[in-house]
């Protein structure tokens, strides 16, 4: 399974690019899964649901299955947050795992950067960033710069970088 990431500051457009990139890759015959880092706590379960009651009662893992999807929730309780490798190991293998976030992990990644966000470029301090996607000029980098609005160019780059060839 190839692993490639999108990273950048909040508000830069990572998620927008991700949801545009996935269908482009899938149309090329690539199976794609995603992993997203959330800095704050999050919940996909809600009070009043049986699965929520199971977790609140102390279950370490709760799996919810249906004819359309299944989800596994694992409570960390007092455990440390697992690292990227441990999370990847839990994923079903596909052609490409796209990771959003995890700025400082060493997987290859594309930085999404917009001057209007007002944050510095991460790439000069993060050697795992191999290119930048932006809506304008990107000062201070010798890395390839891709137009943020050209999803096909970004998909081409990701496929080359990961050594993938489409089947579709």
Short note summarizing the structure:
The protein has 168 residues and is an alpha/beta fold.
Plain-language structure description:
By secondary structure, the chain is α/β, with parallel strands linked by helices. The chain has a single domain (2-40, 82-162), classed as P-loop containing nucleotide triphosphate hydrolases (Rossmann fold, 3-Layer(aba) Sandwich), CATH 3.40.50.300. The chain contains 4 helices and 8 strands. It has helices spanning 14-27, 50-56, 84-89, 151-162, and strands at 2-7, 32-36, 61-65, 70-74, 96-100, 109-113, 129-134, 145-147. A 6-stranded parallel beta sheet has the order 2-5-1-6-7-8, covered by helices on one side. A hairpin with a 4-residue loop joins strand 3 and strand 4. Helix 1 (14-27) crosses helix 4. The longest helix is centred in the first third of the chain and has 14 residues, at 14-27. The mean pLDDT is 92.
List the total number of helices.
Answer: 4
Low-confidence stretches: none
Succession of helices and strands: EHEHEEHEEEEH
Determine the CATH superfamily: P-loop containing nucleotide triphosphate hydrolases
Number of strands: 8
Percentage beta strand: 15-25%
Structural class: alpha/beta
User: How far is the N terminus from the C terminus?
Assistant: 18 Å
Mean pLDDT: 92
Give a quick account of the main beta sheet: strands, pairing sense, barrel closure: 6 strands, parallel
Task: Give the CATH topology.
Answer: Rossmann fold
Structural Rg: 18 Å
- Overall morphology: globular
Instruction: Quickly give the CATH architecture.
Output: 3-Layer(aba) Sandwich
Number of domains: 1
């Amino acid at each position: 399974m190839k692993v490639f990431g999108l990273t950048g500051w909040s508000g830069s457009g990572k998620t927008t690019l991700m949801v545009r990139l996935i269908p482009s890759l899938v149309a090329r015959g690539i199976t794609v899964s995603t992993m997203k880092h959330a800095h704050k706590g999050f919940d996909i379960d809600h009070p009043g649901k049986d699965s929520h009651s199971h977790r609140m009662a102390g279950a370490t893992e709760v799996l919810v299955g249906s004819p359309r999807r299944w989800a596994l929730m694992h409570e960390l309780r007092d455990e440390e947050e697992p690292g990227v490798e441990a999370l990847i190991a839990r994923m079903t293998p596909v052609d490409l795992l796209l990771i959003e976030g995890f700025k400082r992990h060493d997987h290859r990644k594309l930085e999404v950067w917009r001057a209007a966000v007002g944050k510095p470029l991460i790439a000069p301090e993060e050697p795992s960033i191999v290119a930048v996607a932006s809506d304008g000029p990107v000062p201070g980098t010798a890395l390839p710069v891709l137009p943020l609005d050209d999803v096909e160019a970004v998909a081409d780059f990701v496929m080359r970088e990961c050594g993938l060839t489409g089947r579709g």
